[in-house]
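Sanity check record (used in CI):
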Amino acid sequence: MELGSAWVAHTQTPNKVGDDLSALGIRVADGIAPSDEEVDVPVLPENWEALELFLACATQWRHVPMGGVTGLDYTALYSVMAMHQVAATEQRERLAQVQRIERGALQAMKDQQRG
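Expected output for DUF1799 domain-containing protein:
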């Protein structure tokens, strides 16, 4: 869950890149502009593959009509797992790991909305 929270903090922090894009008249969707600051978050070796899968799906969030995010699009996640050649016997474990990261990201997004 800590990885998900760190991802939200890193991607939703105001940054110079976002300011530069705005100055050029380029609108970047909320939450996807890169941060200028690098953030070090420790990742256990057994979680690297799940983190790579999560990051590959980072643009695949499901949104509700009234605003807000409900979670990742798991059909996209399964496609990414296929592209990364995750063995069928490992997919359930990877899904569980990605879901833990996703829960952390969702909680961090909710916390940011509350102020």
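The chain has five helices and two strands. If this sentence no longer matches the regenerated tokens, the check is flagged for review.
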